[in-house]
Amino acid sequence: MSIKVEDKLYQNRYLVDAERPHIQIKDAAVCAACTTRQCTVCCPAGCYEGAESKVVLTTDGCLECGTCRVICTTHRNVAWEYPRGGYGIQFKFG
Amino acid sequence: MSEKFDVIVVGAGASGNAAAYTLAKAGLKVLQLERGETPGAKNVQGAILYADALERIIPDFREEAPLERHIIEQRMWVMDERSYVGSHFRSDDFNKPPYNRYTIIRARFDKWFSDKVKEAGALVICETTVKELLRDDKGKVVGVEVDRADGRIYADLVILADGVNSTLARKAGFRPELDPKHVALAVKEIHFLPADVIESRFNIKDDEGVVIEMMGKITHGMMGTGFLYTNSDSISVGVGCLLSDFMTQKITPYQLLEQLKAHPSVAPMLEGGEMKEYAAHLIPEGGYHAIPQIYGEGWMIVGDSGMFVNAVHREGSNLAMTTGRIAAETAIELSREGKAMSAANLARYRARLDDSFVIKDLKKYKDLPDLPDLLDSNKQFLTTYPELLNRSARAMLTVDGEDKRSKQKDIYRGFRAERSLFGLIGDAYKLWRAFR
């Protein structure tokens, strides 16, 4: 079964804080060397994409759940903050 | 903002609203800060509202709160890929007001609750993220700093109602990072359908509602459950599993949800619906032992931020509202006695919680969060047994010329093939111990 998470996220309402991502990878080299890269599986919004020599993080579709930060237990390589007031996901139903 | 408040409440979810409402109603000068565009914009829940906790705060809430359906039927399904074995409980006793449980849509409900907070006299400011707690040279919390110009705001007491991720409590060192073993990730969608279609599909009328809890192979051996709730003209469907389990396998949360929706027993209930939102949220399931220090010099923690969730009984928002209310009542009492919001005085908050159902219930299941460890080496509970159960039901209900005694023997052999006799007895004992 192939489904695209983008089709789901498309239904959501976001106020994207352009150029100011609220989550950042602390050290790209750590992700490059990471063997599990479980963030690319566990993020419910598919924000993390594994490439050959790095992990690419795009926070636009973030649901602000905290999963990526909590599961990065070995490296603690995710700098996670809430977006600025008023920005990010705005749940219509919740 | 140069004025000083009696209390600052961080967050406008269930616990924050309960606290802010109770405080403002008693005449305290309250500021509530919320990072969403509107109250509720950042909040996610299944969602079931347990009436009792809210009734103790707003006794006549039923007359005006946006409630969806009151629950008259609870279904529990144990599933394999193509089937389920279920137990349903439906009673006309649940159709007599005042009703005990309702489905709600959080964004709508929270907006109403927040209006009540404002009516009670609190100042509610949205689109404002609290960056950190302000502390004096002795470490006492004296206010907060927000992401606006001149962002320092002072108060005698700060109540942290900032949710499961609580960046504030973590940064202040009040609470450690969440343990993946003690937190579940739930994803859900809301599907809109005409009310009469929902009513005919679920055999209900008017404002009656049904909840379905699902377990078994739908979670791929992960510790977790699926759920489906009927709202007025929509259905909430979702699935949640422990993060420590998600960490060990390769299915994404949205694939898991997609498979649940495609299950032959689930798909017909959603057919023709229009999906209008996809949400995700963490649920703190660490139980009693995961509760951090919940008060100190000038601060208290309420709701998910304090890990107040009873995972066994799927209760969270009622614990949130109750901890919010009791924290507020503690502050009101101290204020009336003219006493400081010190750790020694705020200890009354914890003492009151110890006396309430919140701590008593969490204590009852205090060892249950160790269940993941137990199940980790005992995946049969989540995969083998659901499959055997469904296979047995299918065999007994298929009329094909084979006699029933032979079928029974086949079923018994099936269980024995998957699990030794000692294994079966051992499993029964393990479950009994965990839930005792």
TrEMBL record, chain B:
Q: Name one GO molecular function term.
A: FAD binding
Cofactors required: FAD
Q: Which domain of life is it from?
A: Bacteria
Which parts of the sequence belong to the FixC-like C-terminal domain?
371-436
Please give one Pfam family short name.
ETFQO_UQ-bd
ETF-QO/FixC ubiquinone-binding domain location: 207-282
Give residue ranges for domain FAD-binding.
5-197
The record's keywords, sorted A to Z, are:
FAD, Flavoprotein, Oxidoreductase
Instruction: Name the protein family.
Output: Belongs to the ETF-QO/FixC family.
Query: What does this gene product do?
Result: Part of an electron transfer system.
From the Swiss-Prot or TrEMBL record, give the protein name. Answer: Protein FixC
